[in-house]
TrEMBL record:
Its main location: cytoplasm. Residues 499-663 form the W2 domain. This is Translation initiation factor eIF2B subunit epsilon. It comes from Anopheles merus. GO terms for molecular function: guanyl-nucleotide exchange factor activity; translation initiation factor activity; translation initiation factor binding. Residues 448-471 are annotated as: Disordered. One of its GO terms (cellular component) is cytosol. InterPro entries: ARM-type_fold (IPR016024), eIF-2B_epsilon_N (IPR035543), eIF2B_epsilon (IPR051956), LbH_EIF2B3/5 (IPR056764), NTP_transferase_dom (IPR005835), Nucleotide-diphossugar_trans (IPR029044), W2_domain (IPR003307), W2_eIF2B_epsilon (IPR044123).
Amino acid sequence: MSKAKAIENKEIVQAIVIADSYNDNFQPFTSTKPLALLPVANVPLIEYTLETLNRNGVEEVIVFCSSHIDQVKRHIADRQAARCTWSTGMRVSIVSSEACRSIGEAIRDLDSRNTIRGSVLLLGVESVTNADLAALLEEHKRLAKVDRGAVMTVVYKEGLRRMRTGNEVVVAHDPTTRRLLYHQRLAQHERERSFELPLDLFLANRDVAVCHGLLDPQIAVCSQAALPLFADNFDFLTRDDFVRGVLINEEILNSRIYVAKLAREEYAMRVNNWQSYHLVSLDVINRWVYPLVPDTAISEFRQQYKHFRNNVYRHRNVRLSRSCELDGDLVVGEECEIREGTYLRQSVVGRGCRIGRNCRIVNSFLLEGVTVGDGTVLSHCVLERAVTVGSRCTIEPGTVLGEGVEIPDGLTVGGLLLQASEPAADEWGTTPVEKIADRAYTIPVLDEEDSDSDEEEGGTGQPAQNQPHAIAPLPERYPASVYEPSDEECDSGPASPVPEDANIFLSEVVESLKRGLAEKSNAEYLILEINSSRYAYNMALCEVNYYVVKAILQIMLQQDGVATNTVGTLRRLLAYFGVVFRNYIRDRDAMMDCLKALEEMCPTSETVRAKLPQLVHYLYEADLIGEQVIIEWYDGLAEAGLKAALSKLVQWLQESSEEEEEDDDDEEEEDD
């Protein structure tokens, strides 16, 4: 094959980004602006999506728009002209159709254009994640080679405790193959006390794992065959419809769906209503989405924010009174002014905002150009662009003030959606619209009784993916994030660092090792870099051992051909990283840390899980791990599947050890 032909046949890495949610959950913002430009911590949603795709090596992104198309096109063009980070190595094109009213229609439109040339990442612009999407794509390609009917891998994440956002699902899957067997979306209002699963599910499958309360961030990897399935089935309006249809007609369609659960340190959440917007904003501020945090200049080459104690991010150009109090978990944007005696906590203040004296702002989100008068209280609310709130006002939880709304002095607004102009007579049908002020009109929302009838989708008995519901008050107390480290601590050394430090340390080790491998620099210099990061983040030695091995394994999984030649790939990497590996993995405890890293990679990597005995055997043969440590680690394994896979290796080690002892005894008898 000629070089030109090989280049022509090379499959480029593509991604489809659906830029609309096809619901009214973000009224009044989406009445004048696209969802893609909704700012999270002062950065539009689409910037998080494109930056994540760029970091995962995506070469071409197709952004599908159905509303406010010109604004999205203008934003993309402006960012490309500004040479932002994702514009230099990734092609972004806009495909639009105002006639589309669902994800299914968007996919059918894309299928008719023949723009997809292989496996493709499919996600919504509202999906915020720092997950390793490249590894998910490669794993799906591996699955597709084994099972030609694998049309989709859906991504899930462990859910929030005691809280519903509309993104939660119950799924059942085969724990060995990870093939999806059952899927049900949970109700927003958390009213069910039990779940009914078909009996056939358990009769037809030997092993079934049922997972309750998983988060669905609307991220999937699709084979090229998935798009024609949307085209052939016009009742597939949402991704839930697609999943349900494939599960019901698996044999007829000869198609199967697989499950990928993200690792504990990976973040993924869908911003599907104002409540989840609140949660994701605070997760970004609390650095769970690292490296997508304000002080790393998302999609920018120049840092804009400085990170201060208690997760306070301030732009370099702000005006703060000496007596104002920034309590914590805050983003304060460019050209903001905050006057005397004002208190802020767990909030975002957009560019050019003016906040008066003696205000109290808690869990509130102020977009660009908002003005707040003296003595005003804002609690758990959203103020959109150019909103003006007078003095001595109280804006109560659940309130959303649309662009240009003006609230006069002394007014209390409780849990309403307001827009600046009076809606047209036919815009909301017969639902009454109330005038609050000259530039403040209510937007009707469905009450809980009305939403009950609309909650089920197409008579299937399952809640709709995009549930129209009254915006409930945002949580008074931000719950502890689910993205937390293991409760297990090292036997020695200082206490484990906070999760963000551990994640940052791991990412820095990975970057150092990858850079050294690419440049073929002296590997001993990498030890100096790792030690420097260790002291910067106060990492215990056992944690350093663990993360160094984990970093090498992550790099291994990104290499070409790793699925078919895993041990050979590790051998090739250790030919360079061996100096680093031996520097940290020296004694029994360090070897145990190494094996623990291998063990904890198994739930997130099918490659490591399938090749675990061969990897451990290679490390033993290379004199990197001792046999007694392997046996001790094996005895402490809790998962039966791993013990079964390693049993032959451990048996061989024990027999070899006994033979050596017998040989030693024979030699001693001959000497006597």
